[in-house]
Specification:
Blueprint (H helix, E strand, L loop, with lengths): L3 E9 L3 E6 L2 E6 L12 E11 L2 E7 L2 H10 L7 H10 L2 H9 L3 H4 L7 H11 L32 H13 L4 H11 L9 H14 L1
Length: 210
C-alpha cells in the first residue's frame, strides 16, 4: 500500500495531477486537481493505492481526513473509487460525516453519483463506523446540525448555486474568508443560470488572482 508520496507537482489535468518523485512521474487522481499548483517546492499527497486486473491507480488527497473518508466510502456497496472521489469533490469529510450520522438523505443525494438507494446504504453501512478511524482521529466531532442543503449557518449571498460551489471549494481546503473575498470579486459579473462547475472555475480564477 502506498500511503503518501512527496514530490513536485509538474502537471495538472482535469482529473489528476502528475507528481515528480526522484524523476518518476506519478499520476494521482484527486477530487480537484486545481487545488494544487505546479511548483519546484515539494508537496505531500496522501494516497490510496487501488489495484484491479486492468488498472493500477493512485488516488490522492491533501489531508488525512479526506484519505480516511475515501477509504470508508469504499466500504459501501455500490461505491467505487471514482464515485468516492466525486463525493469528496462535493463536500468536506466532516460535512459528509454529519449528513451520514444525521441520516440526511436529501443532502447525500445531492452529492455526485449518489441516488437514494446508495445514500441509504451509506447511512446503513457507515453511521456507526465514523468514530473509530485509523490514524488517531474520528468524525464524531461532526455534530453540528445540517439542514437539507448541508449548511449549518445562515443562507449565503449568491444563492443555491454559489452555496454548492462554495461548499465544494471549502472541501478542497479554501477558507470561508477566501471564498467570500472571491465572491465579492465575482458577483459583478454574475451569469444567469450558471452551473456549479462553471461557478467553481470562475471562483478558482479569482482565487488565483490573489
Amino acid at each position: 500500500m502506498i500511503d503518501y508520496i512527496r514530490g513536485r507537482v509538474v502537471h495538472l489535468d482535469t482529473e489528476y495531477v502528475v507528481v515528480d518523485v526522484r524523476d518518476i512521474g506519478y499520476q494521482v487522481f484527486t477530487p480537484n486537481p486545481y487545488a494544487f499548483v505546479k511548483s519546484d517546492d515539494s508537496v505531500t499527497i496522501f494516497t490510496h493505492h487501488h489495484v484491479r486486473e486492468d488498472a493500477n491507480l493512485l488516488f490522492g488527497f491533501s489531508n488525512r481526513e479526506e484519505q480516511a473518508m475515501f477509504r470508508k466510502l469504499l466500504d459501501v456497496s455500490g461505491i467505487g473509487p471514482r464515485v468516492a472521489l466525486g463525493i469528496l469533490a462535493g463536500g468536506k469529510p466532516e460535512t459528509i460525516a454529519a449528513a451520514i450520522q444525521q441520516e440526511n438523505l436529501t443532502f447525500l443525494t445531492k452529492l455526485p453519483g449518489i441516488g437514494k438507494k446508495t445514500a441509504q446504504r451509506m447511512v446503513l453501512d457507515l453511521k456507526d463506523k465514523l468514530d473509530h478511524i485509523p490514524g488517531g482521529f474520528s468524525f464524531a466531532a461532526a455534530s453540528f446540525v445540517l439542514d437539507d442543503e448541508g449548511t449549518s449557518g445562515t443562507l449565503l449571498e449568491g444563492g443555491e448555486v454559489w452555496r454548492e460551489a462554495r461548499e465544494a471549494l471549502m472541501a478542497l481546503g479554501y477558507t470561508a474568508a477566501e471564498l467570500d473575498r472571491a465572491w465579492q470579486g465575482m458577483k459583478q459579473t454574475e451569469v444567469p443560470n450558471e452551473s456549479v462547475d462553471l461557478l467553481m472555475k470562475r471562483a478558482l480564477q479569482q482565487l488565483f488572482k490573489g
